[in-house]
Each structure stands twice: as structure tokens, then as C-alpha cells.
Write a structure and sequence with these properties.
With 487 residues, this protein is an alpha/beta fold. It has helices at 13-24, 36-44, 58-63, 79-88, 106-118, 131-137, 150-160, 183-211, 217-227, 235-244, 267-278, 283-295, 298-307, 319-352, 358-364, 375-385, 396-419, 424-436, 443-454; strands at residues 6-9, 29-32, 52-54, 70-73, 97-100, 122-129, 140-145, 163-164, 172-173, 179-180. Helix 5 runs antiparallel to helix 8 (183-211), helix 12 (283-295) runs antiparallel to helix 18 and helix 15 runs antiparallel to helix 16. The relative contact order is 0.09.
Length: 487
Amino acid sequence: MAKADIGLIGMAVMGQNLVLNMEDHGYTVAVYNRTLERVDEFIEHHAQGKKIIGTHSVEELVDSLKSPRIVMLMVKAGEPVDIFIDHLLPHLSEGDIIIDGGNSNYEDTIRRYKYVESKGMLYIGTGVSGGEEGARWGPAIMPGGSPEAWPHVKPILQDISAKVPEGDPNGEPCCQWIGEGGAGHYVKMVHNGIEYGDMQLICEAYYLMKHALGMSNEEMHRVFAEWNTGKLDSYLIEITANILNFKNEEGEYVIDLILDTAGQKGTGKWTGISALDMGIPLTLIAEAVFARCLSALKEERVAASEVLHGPDGALDGDKEAFLQDLHDALYASKIISYTQGYMLMQEAAKEYGWNLNLGGIASVWRGGCIIRSAFLGNIKAAFDKNPQLSNLLLDDYFRAEVEGAQGAWRRVVAKAVELGLPVPAMSSALAFYDGYRRARLPQNLLQAQRDYFGAHTYERVDKPRGEFFHTDWIQSGGEATAGSYNA
């Protein structure tokens, strides 16, 4: 029997679809699953007549592979990944490659990368975005880890990835090498954080349409469908239009039957935690995570709605003008979300010594993934023009777009506040923009407060940076000191 090009462990839907995708592109794939019945069922049905080899043990899987042997794990993140790594290592040889394609925490990937390399093998942690459909027909793939492994896995991963333009088999693959260590899973984590932000912004636009404008599902469907033909063209806007138009067999809009409590798997939270650790103001994505947390307090909110009162009116004004403002506010807020995500990736690159291709990351996200949109082409162009760009808002295109939209943005946020409708992501995005564009903020008072109660010291505007001072605020006669503080 011919040897397989790659092995895959984990035959849930994502794993099965990736295997079928690989086979479509001419690769022979060996498969294994801890529950052996799932392997046999897959071979007998979906894989029948295809170049797919079913195996019943890790050892059999490894023995069925060409050298260097490549094994991809599509198992639940966390301990299962470590268990399978330890199962695999005794059967692998120097230079063989393990790929983790799950949603692993990047810190786990850094640890595993070092561990596997210490045993003489190579390790890749890769983000795979696009869900089940993407896995079958072309996801966005973000590999990082051992650079020596990339030439061996590059043909397979790029062949199965989405292509831009969409549908062009010779288009640019939405899969590029991200960087060493945990870089691939880190970028996937930020992708998911931006996804949280995009989804929350769209939900806020929907909420304002429904409650401020009193629009029907059909009317909202038409607006989102129209928005998807312009600057806001994206997968998430597209599916929002579809969702709002979807009815069940009884003729009811399904959107109106869904409980307003959101779930989450943790990647948005990880993004926020990383931002806090690195001191990056990832305000919009953090608000998107907290909005999901607030939504989960359903029973409390229902009870509170009976006793806590505030504005509860509708817009009294030009509906069409407000819709145009809402479009612009959504676009400006989206720019802030990506701006903050890129700020975080740039800081992580410094922290971990990764040489991230920021324009290349935008290129990877242009197809296959959940946040794919026309907008990403502008981000790629910004970093192609200036690879050292410190902030997207300083790019000519994005600066002009935000400045052009900010009047509408302010009107929408102000009207939402006036009507008592929560828009935490849009309003936090605007607050970030206003803070970032200010040369002076009120934290001079905050530093005085810290120095007053804790002698934490401060810097002065009339002295060089790096010199620290303390004031005896209560004239206790204590000695004034200069030192350093933790911001």
C-alpha cells in the first residue's frame, strides 16, 4: 500500500472535512480517532473510494506515513493535545512534524513547541478559521512554530486553504507562515477577538434599527444586504442579512425565537487578557466579551427591567439619514477594532521576538475565515506601503475614512445614549479614538493621586522622560525621593 502524505488524528466534523479537502487536492491521508468506530464509519461512507487510509492505533497511523512524517491533530484544545503528543513522540523520528490545528492557547503552543523540539521533532501550531464549511472547501490557515517544518507542510496547507480571488484555484492562498513559537495560534486568537468585536458591532447596529427605528426583519434584511455591496462587504454582514430573512416551516422569523444569551469558547477572553498583560488598550474587543457576559445574566436582566427605569423612546427624526449615519458609525468602529487588534499583534511581536508580516496576515484573512471582508485589502495595502506603520489610524486611507465618518459616529452614539440603548462597542471605539488623538489626557491627576497615597512617583513635563519625582503632598516633612514606578 502506498504511504500517506499526512496523517490526521481527530475525526469530528472539522477533522473529516479537512481530510476530504486534502484528498480533493491529490493527497493521500491516513486517519485515526480514539473512538475507532468513527474511523470505520468514515472509511465506509464519506471516504469510500478515496485515497484515505483508516488506522486503529497511533503506531499504525505513524507507520503508514511518508518521511518526514506529518501528523495533524484536530482534537479538543487543552490536555487532549498533550496526551496525543506524548502518544506520538515514541513512534516518531528526528525531523518528523506534529501540527496542532485546534484552537489552542498560544502559551500552550509555545510550551509544546519547545518540548517537541527538545525531543528532536518539529512542531507547528496553526489557527484554522472558517468553520466546518471552510475546512471542507478552503479555510484561512495561520501556521507558526518550527520554521524548519514549513517547507514540508507548505504545499499541503496552501493547497487546501481558501484562495483570493474567491473561486480561483490559482489565486493567492489564504495561508502564509506567521512566525516562530506560538505566533500562529496568537494571530488566530486575535482573529477571534476581532471576530467578537465585529459581531458585537453588527448586533448593536441591528439593535438600533429594531428599537430606535422600529424596522421589521425584512427591512433590516434589505439594509444589510445593501451594505454588503459596499465598504462593509464581509462574510458577517452577508450572513446577518440572510439570518434576518430566514423563516421556519411555520413562517416565523427564527431570529425572533432565539434567546438573547450569547455563548463563548474563550478566545475573545484570551485576547483581552493578553492585551491587559501587554498594556494595550483593546477596549472594543473587551467590551464585546463583556457584552456576552452581560447577556448571560438573562434572569437578572428580566427582573431588573421591572424596576430600573430610563429612556425608552424611538428616534424622532429622519430615518434614512440615521441609517446612513449608522452605516458610517459601524465602519468607523470596525476600523478601530482592527486598529486595536493590530496594536496587540505588534506588541506581541516585540514581546516574543516574532517577525510578523502584518500585511501578510491581512492577506490570509481575506478569504476562508469568519472575518473575511473587502476591508482587509485596505489593511494589506497600508502595511505594503509602510511595513513600519505603527498604527492603522496613521495611514492616509484610514485616517481619512475615520475623519469622514466621525460626525455620523458621534450622532449615532449620542442618540443611542439619549434613547437608553446600549452600544458598548461603538461607544468604546469612539472613546478610544478621542483618547488616541489627544496630546494630553487627565492621567496627570491620576499620577498625582498615586503619588499622594502611595509615593509611586511621577514624571514631569519640564524634565526628560525617565526622571521620576515625589511630592510631600501633606507636608509631613518626609524626604522627597526619585525612583521608578510601574505604569
